[in-house]
Structures are given as C-alpha cells and as structure tokens.
Design brief:
It is a single chain. With about 450 residues, the protein is an all-alpha fold. The protein folds into 2 domains: about 1-180, no CATH class; about 190-450, no CATH class. It is globular and about 65 Å long. The longest helix is centred in the last third of the chain and has 53 residues, at about 330-385. α1 crosses α3 (about 55-85) and α1 (about 1-35) packs across α4 (about 85-115). The protein has 16 helices and no strands. Helix content is about 85%, strand content about 0%.
C-alpha cells in the first residue's frame, strides 16, 4: 500500500509539504509512546505466560491508557510551542495526534491477539487500515485535499481498524471492561516502564534525525530525507513480523533449558541476517533508478541518503529481533543502557553532520548509531542470554551477496523490478545450492515456533 501512496503523496505535495507530513508522523510515534509506556508489549508477555489473567490485565490497561491521554496531549502542546512551526505543520501534527490515540487502543487489542498467538486478526486489522488509508489518501490528494485531507484519511482508517478489532477481541478473548486503581496501576507501570523506556529510546535515536533536521534545516530537506527513509521503513516489516511471531514462544521458552532458547534465537537470527546481507549492495546499486522512478526528479537529492540508509536497514533487521529477545527473557533493562548510549551518540552526530551535509549527514548518523548499538547488543546477548548454535551461514550469505552484486552491476539500465527479481532469485538459489537453507529447516522452524 505504501508503494502506491508514497509516490502519489510525494509528487502532489512536493518536498516541503511531504516533509511536514513526515515530521507529523514522527511526532505521532512519540505521542503513541506517551499513551502506552510499554504497556502493550508487557501485556503480550504476561498474558502469553498466564492467559487466565487476560481479563484483569485488559481492564486495567484500558483504564491506565485512558488516564495517560492528558500526558500525551501535554507532550504535543509543549513540543509545538517549543518548535515554533508554521500553521500547516501544527494543524497536521494535531490531526496525527488523534490518529495516535486511536492506534494506541487498537494496538492493545493487537497485543492480546499476539498473546494468544492468533495473529490473523492483527493481519486483517492492519490490512484494513492500510487499504483504506491508501484508497482515501489517493482520492483526497487527487481532489486537492492537500496535507490536511491526507491526515484525516489516516484518522478515518485507524477508526475503522479499531472498530474491526473490537468484534474478535470481545467475542473470543475478553469482555468489555474498564478499571481504575492506583494500586493496580503502579505494579503494571513498574513492569511496563522498562519496555516503554526501551521503545522510547529506540524511537528517539531512530527519529531524532528528522526532528533535528526540522530544527536545523528547511522543510525541503525534511522531504528529501523522508523520501529515502520511507523506502527503508518498508523493509522493517520483515524483522518486525518475525519478532512479533516469535515473541510469545520466546517468552515461554525462556523458562525452559537454555538449549531451546538458543535454537530458536539462532533460527531467527539466521533468517534475518540472510535477508539483510543483500540489502546493502542491492540498495546501493539501485538507489538512483528507485528514487527517480518512485518519487521523480525533484527528489534526486535523496539518492545518496538512500544508498547510506540501505546499510541502516540491514542493521535494523537484527536490532529489532534482538530487542524482542531481550524483552522476552526479562532482560530489557540491560538493553536500555545500550539505547541511552545510542541516543547520546545519534544526537551528537546529527548536531555535527546536519549543518554541513543536511539530510545526508542524518543518514550517516543513523548508520553509525544503529551499527554500534547492534554491536553492543549482540556482545551483551551472547555473553548473558543466548548463543548461536551455528555460524557457517554468515560466510555463505556474504558469498551469495558478492555473486549477486556482480550480476546486478552488469544489469545496470534494466528495469528495476526485473533486476530485483533476478538478483533475489540468484541469491537464494546459491543459498539453497550451498544447503545454507533447506525446505526441511524452514518446516522445523515453523514447528519450533508453534511448540
């Protein structure tokens, strides 16, 4: 759906308004965090372990989220007051704040779907939202609704998605309920706040580049950076889906002998690394035709940013999954220390690199920060939590990517989709030929997750 909406929005809005749109969505992420504080992830873990307590956790979580809404609104008001943005930006941010509120409660329903490992409801809910957002957004933009109309399309789609979630939620898992109790809220917050801090820090150092660009450069630079970053965001669904699908199983397995956890971790790490490795050369070689074909010549300055962010995307494949492992094994507090370091580093690098290099400087900062965070995370995970049960796949993946890159270089000038298809086919054919991956192993991985 993003492959349809983004080209239309970027071309009809132009770099400046497209930049405002992406700034508003960045603020939206922080608004959702203020109304969640890690509760959704905590609910998934706790209910996955004790499903009989689902009703109690649901009722008090709804009450706590309702109580946190004023905090979220205060956060937005203070940020906009400090930022001194133009009227269109302020209006768009407030509309996306409403969108964030709806998504926060929708995501609570999704947290229960995940805890009961019935993710099909999540898939349907999110598909409904994305299809409606794309359809309504394109129509509104073509009719001249501009940035404000596009923002309201997001709100309407989120409301429809939330309403869809209520039927399976109340029909299969819990009853409608709402409960307030400071005695209950405090232990919930103590359990959830580490998740919240971890997600907050990850969000900050992942999005501080856009915020600092909005302070140090004009809206057109927000648009150039957002054009590249949005394409990278499209790849994040792969590690996110794997982390979501394995999180309940990891939570349960963490109480068993270490070998079970090591086996499941190795499988997930292996698949994600093998998918991440070809991203780096692939994006570097195809960035120009992708940007020009997707967004148009007005976004040509986004090309070097995308080439750098291809490396960031590859690193995020492993960072997202590793964060889930830390949370599932009650080690999220250890991850927070690393993320604080990532935030400090990202802020410093953006401050130094944005003035001379604008959006390209933000891309460099993102790659360096995510790479160092991953290095520290894996060192800590390997020393305290899990072990890899095999390692040969790393060299096999690098070899396959080198061969693929040579072929892609020779196919310069071919249509992008043809080049991507040929490259992907060649890469995975080599992995199957080397027996790095097999159909039997894929089936075993599915059985481990379901066990």
């Amino acid at each position: 759906m993003a492959m349809i909406l983004l080209p239309v929005a970027s071309r009809l809005l132009g770099p400046a308004s497209f930049g405002r749109y992406n700034l508003a969505t960045t603020v939206m992420f922080f608004t959702m965090l203020a109304d969640d504080l890690g509760l959704n992830m905590w609910v998934t873990r706790e209910i996955a372990r004790e499903r009989e307590r689902a009703q109690r956790y649901f009722a008090y979580t709804v009450g706590l989220k309702a109580a946190l809404i004023p905090l979220s609104l205060l956060f937005v008001a203070i940020y906009l007051q400090i930022g001194g943005y133009d009227a269109e930006t302020v209006r768009t941010v407030w509309i996306f704040t409403l969108y964030a509120m709806l998504c926060s409660f929708r995501d609570l329903a999704i947290a229960l779907f995940r805890a009961f490992e019935q993710m099909e409801w999540e898939s349907l809910a999110l598909s409904i939202e994305k299809v409606l957002t794309t359809a309504a957004g394109v129509v509104v933009l073509l009719l001249g609704g501009g940035l404000t109309g596009l923002a309201w399309a997001f709100v309407a789609a989120a409301a429809a998605s939330l309403l869809f979630c209520l039927r399976p939620l109340f029909g299969k898992f819990v009853r409608p309920d709402l409960a307030f109790s400071l005695r209950e809220f405090l232990p919930m917050l103590r359990g959830a706040v580490v998740f919240g801090i971890s997600v907050f820090l990850t969000t900050v150092y992942s999005h501080i580049d856009m915020l600092m660009l909005s302070w140090l450069k004009g809206p057109e630079y927000w648009g150039f950076f957002a054009a590249a970053h949005k394409l990278i965001d499209l790849t994040n669904f792969i590690p996110t889906v794997l982390m979501i699908a394995t999180f309940p199983a990891l939570s349960r397995i963490s109480r068993r002998p270490a070998g079970d956890l090591n086996h499941l971790f190795t499988r997930g790490f292996k698949w994600l690394l093998l998918l991440a490795i070809p991203l780096v050369p692939g994006v570097a070689l195809l960035a120009r035709p992708v940007i020009l074909g997707f967004y148009g010549a007005a976004y040509a300055p986004s090309i070097p940013a995308l080439q750098i962010l291809g490396g960031t995307a590859a690193v995020l494949f492993l960072n997202i999954f590793a964060a889930g492992v830390f949370g599932a094994t009650n080690n999220q507090g250890k991850l927070v220390i690393i993320q604080i370091g990532g935030l400090i580093l990202s802020t410093a690098l953006n401050y130094l690199l944005i003035p001379p290099f604008a959006h390209v400087g933000s891309s460099i900062s993102s790659l360096v920060t995510e790479s160092l965070v991953l290095t520290a995370t894996l060192i800590l995970a390997y020393s305290r939590i899990v072990r890899l049960t095999e390692k040969r796949f790393i060299l096999d993946g690098l070899f396959a990517a080198i061969v693929m890159s040579a072929f892609l270089y020779g196919l310069r000038g071919w249509p992008v989709f043809a080049v991507v298809g040929i490259g992907a086919t060649l890469y995975f054919a080599i992995l199957f030929a080397l027996k790095t991956i097999t159909w039997q192993e894929i089936w075993q991985f599915k059985r481990v997750k379901a066990a």
